[in-house]
Amino acid sequence: QVQLVQSGAEVKKPGASVKVSCKASGYTFNGYYMHWVRQAPGQGLEWMGRINPNSGGTNYAQKFQGRVTMTRDTSISTVYMELTSLRSDDTAVYYCARVVSTTQLPILNYWGQGTLVTVSS
Amino acid sequence: EIVLTQSPGTLSLSPGERATLSCRASQTVGSTYLAWYQQKPGQAPRLLIFGASSRATGIPDRFSGSGSGTDFILTISRLEPEDFAVYYCQQYGNSPQTFGQGTKLEIK
Questions:
Q1: Set of chain A residues whose Cβ sits within 8 Å of the Cβ of B88
Q2: Rounded to an integer, what distance in angstroms lies between the CA atom of residue A69 and that of residue A83?
Q3: Contact (CB<8Å) B50/A95
Q4: Which residues contact A103 (CB under 8 A, 6 or more apart)?
Q5: Which residue in A16, A17, A61 sits closest to A35, CA to CA?
Q6: What residues of A are in contact with residue B90 (Cβ under 8 Å)?
Q7: What is the pLDDT of residue B64?
Q8: pLDDT digits (tens, 9 = 90+) for B61-101
Q9: Which of A11, A71, A104, B23 could be bridged to B89 by S-S, CB 3.0 to 4.6 A?
Q10: Of A45, A110, A111, which to mutate for an interface test with B (greatest number of B Cβ within 10 Å)?
Q11: Nearest residue to A104 via CA among A28, A26, A60, A52
Q12: What residue of A is the nearest CA neighbor of B58?
């Protein structure tokens, strides 16, 4: 069965960086795009970007351009999301989510458990 | 980018009642590329509907989606206790994909 297991909670100071991992299992890793979505406390869902695990190609939401980097390590079926220059309003739960089919349409059917990133001085 | 506005913000109903949730887009959503997700506290979102009206695998048939263009509806025909949650719509027909702000469905 498809599983996405994310790394644990992080506490960071303003200006620091965070790197969240998402380990996939139960399917062909290279075959499905992976997206990152975040959710601030008590707020809605915000799309950050996506990575093609096969090529490593990425697309980022304009809001995060220059601050976010998504990468992958195919040898261990893991994708990463790094966010730099953290601010207090980056405090959120960060989710990785896999698309439902090889059409790669961003219909997100499988989600990680979420990683809470807290930015506080 | 397309802005999705969901209404109402909160819907208070009783089990067994019918729920109607609305999602309105600021521009036409291409190819009816609209999805609905359910999220319970402390959990990741769960895909319910894609392509405006297709149920995802394992989703009960009391959930249905409809609409096109700029106006979309999620209907839950008879509410079960486990249906009380927050619901989000998402458009993926135009880049960047965007989500609505959510509708909280609470027990009356």
A1: 44-45
A2: 7
A3: no
A4: none
A5: A61
A6: 45, 106, 108
A7: 98
A8: 999 999 999 999 999 999 999 999 999 999 998 989 999 99
A9: B23
A10: A45
A11: A52
A12: A109
Assign residue A114 a region (left: φ > 0; alpha: ψ between -120 and 50; beta: otherwise): left
Average pLDDT over chain A, rounded to an integer: 97
pLDDT at B32 exceeding the cut of 90: no
Q: In a 10 Å sphere around its CB, with 0-12 CB exposed, 13-18 middle and 19+ buried, how is residue B46 labelled?
A: middle
Judged by CB atoms closer than 8 Å, whether chains meet at B47 and A108 is answered as: yes
For B69, the token pair is 């263009």
Q: What is the rounded CA–CA span in Å between residue B61 and residue B80?
A: 12
Length of chain B: 108
Pick from B45, B90, B95: CB nearest A111: B45
What are the E-state strand segments in A2-119? 3-6, 10-12, 18-25, 34-39, 45-51, 58-60, 68-73, 78-83, 92-99, 108-111, 115-119
Per-residue DSSP letter, B15? T
Q: Are B100 and B39 in contact, with CB atoms under 8 Å apart?
A: no
Q: Is A116 on the interface with B (CB under 8 A)?
A: no
Cα A35 to chain center, whole Å?
6
- Which B residues in the span 48-77 are in contact with A, Cβ-Cβ below 8 Å? 50, 56-57
Q: How confident is the model at residue A63 (pLDDT cuts 50, 70, 90)?
A: very high
**How much is the pLDDT for A34?**
98
